[in-house]
Amino acid sequence: MNNFTFENTTRIHFGAGQIEKLAEEIPEGSKTLVLYGGGSIKSNGVYEQVAKALEGKEWGEFSGIEPNPQYDTLMKAVEKIREEEFDYLLAVGGGSVVDGTKFIAAAVRFDEGDPWQILTDHKPVEDAMPIGCVLTLPATGSETNIAAVVSRGADKLPFISPLVRPTFAILDPATTLSLSPRQVSNGVVDAFVHTIEQYLTYPVNAKIQDRFAEGILLTLIEEGPKALTTPKDLEVRTNIMWAATQALNGLIGAGVPQDWATHMIGHELTAEYGIDHARTLSIILPAVMKMQREKKKGKLLQYAERVWGITDGSDDERIDGAISATVAFFRQMEVPVSLSDVDVSDSAVKKVTTRLENHGMTQLGEHGDIDINAARSILQLAL
Q1: Does domain 11-175 have CATH number 3.40.50.1970?
Q2: From the candidate CATH numbers 3.50.50.60, 1.10.238.10, 1.20.1090.10, 1.10.630.10, the one assigned to the domain spanning 180-381
Q3: By C-alpha distance, which of 84, 82, 23 is closest to 49?
Q4: Residue 309 region by backbone torsions, left for phi larger than 0, else alpha for psi between -120 and 50, else beta
Q5: pLDDT per position as a tens digit, 113-143
Q6: pTM score above 0.85
Q7: 163 CB contacts (<8 Å, ≥6 apart)?
Q8: Residue 255: pLDDT above 90?
């Protein structure tokens, strides 16, 4: 196992009725801006619960944060915060709302030019507003981690800062019952691939991290399809919500190599074609597994045995079986597994590799050896 430093300071309130905890979590005397997306929280009862919990406190609201949060929208929130002197941020929604709020928190206090430089030039975040969140769509793990992804036109870029980790997160699985089947599928697949990218690399004898990751994968495989076939089963939603948080809170990634090539290639597919983030992952991951099968051989065989119960056959046969089982799971979750499934032609290979090169994504993977040529091969396998 590699050396590591682990810290996660987000306080989590998990379970039914926990939105009422806002009353004690929002600091006395603060002026809070509640940020959310397209307004679904007003139809599913979440907005009403938040408003009730904030009774007696000073607060305002900002809506319209997109599924891939756009810089121009977020900067309007920054302007509102400065003009009306808000001093606390509360994100209410899914990962995109939380990601957008993280960028807003950093941008408000960024005084070195255009805040977009936080993403393009990796300018350090020296200060940020405090953030809390009420999660309504389990997927990204953004509610307890230090990462965010923001878009500006056709660019979709990540940034990381410990200063934007939410102070607290409220996770009430009942808030997820109104999600559409597509949102449910996307969330499960996103969490699954987050776990894979911290697990399916090469062995470093990190037994706890491996077993935790395998437990998350097995839970998502077991519960994900149920969320589609029995959408009102709250117990199913409870396990999925907790799995998605555990998938990217830093714990299973501590002390192990990580491979985020699928995500980086997927970001460019979303930016170029508008494909849902999770669906780019279900398209690209099987191709990465095929392309890197020799370098990932040890963990692919472990994955085959421990996650899919595949123990018979040669090494190659077991690896093929694990990849096929992964694809079958994605199909069960009703997501695409190839570019042709989303009517994207082979022209994507050149477009996406050009975008990767323009964004400096030329040394991807746990070994840093997925260059433009390798990315091209992965995209060709994904056709």
Answers
A1: yes
A2: 1.20.1090.10
A3: 23
A4: left
A5: 899 999 999 999 999 999 999 999 999 999 9
A6: yes
A7: 105, 106, 125, 126, 127, 128, 146
A8: yes
